[in-house]
Amino acid sequence: MTGSRDAGATNGASAKAEAPALTEGGQGEGKDEKLLRRRLQYKLHQRRHRAKQKQKAVTLEHEVQTLQAEVEALTRRRQKLLVESNWFSSRGTSTGVPARVAMEYFRLFEVGGSPITLSQQEQYLRSVMTADTEGPDYLGVDTVVVQWRRYASFFAYTRFEPVSIDVSTVSDLTVVEVSSYFHIRAHRDCIAALYPSLLTELELMQKVMEDKLSIMCKYRFVFDSRGIVTWFSAEWDLIGALQRTLGSLADVSAFLSGANISAATGQISVEESRPASAVDPRHNVDFLLS
User: Fold this and answer.
1) Which of 160, 107, 125, 153 is nearest to 270 (CA)?
2) Residue 111: is it exposed, middle or buried by C-beta count within 10 angstroms (0-12/13-18/19+)?
3) pTM across the whole model
4) CATH fold for domain 91-289
5) 8 Å CB contact between 176 and 166
6) Per-residue model confidence (pLDDT) at position 8
7) Are 183 and 151 in contact (CB under 8 A)?
8) Neighbouring residues of 270: CB distance < 8 A, sequence distance ≥ 6
9) Is the pLDDT score of 25 beyond 90?
């Protein structure tokens, strides 16, 4: 009996000893689980935080781009308003907007047109003229563009030399008149297409080909209240230029007989006879020596 009680006591003591150990083990596992949970929560928090910061940066960048676009739009509007406000205050002077636009024509076309420069020149023409722009023998900016393409085709040398400018106003219209010499020399193999009579007047052809023609011209630009050119014309004194070269009106008359270029306006009435050269006109020997 005593042995049985001792064994029972021993078993009881062992059970009591194991119970705290199990409890401590369970508590340790619980702490590890909580730690892992906290770490996971921290990682998720950091991930959400970084996502929010990234989205915030994207949103801020978009807002900055939007504001920059608004600033650019407002700057353009301000410049436009400044131009419009200065338009009427200075339009009747040689330094006003209409005068500057007109002189830009002579700057861009100083040495004529070529495939290298025609794109910029055409852009200028279409920015100041429209399909309704008129002239004495044409209608529309397309005609002006085509004429310069023909000049590039028929002439080996062209050069403007402005002499004077006169600006006047009539109601809402502004008239700019520019007097300029226009120096030209036709391609030898194209001159007969412009002046068919030279096929039988070889002596006259030789006289003209020996030197360039210097034609006195007057160009007239009429601007409306919006700054658009509604009228654009050229008045040529080709007869005077030919008389100085040929010497007699009889030779001038023979030269101009059946001509495909207007002696009064310079309008060419035949298509391009040859592809335009890709060489910049400023590299032309005639231009460099002039």
Assistant:
1) 153
2) buried
3) 0.64
4) Nuclear Transport Factor 2; Chain: A, (3.10.450)
5) yes
6) 52
7) no
8) 150, 193, 194, 260
9) no
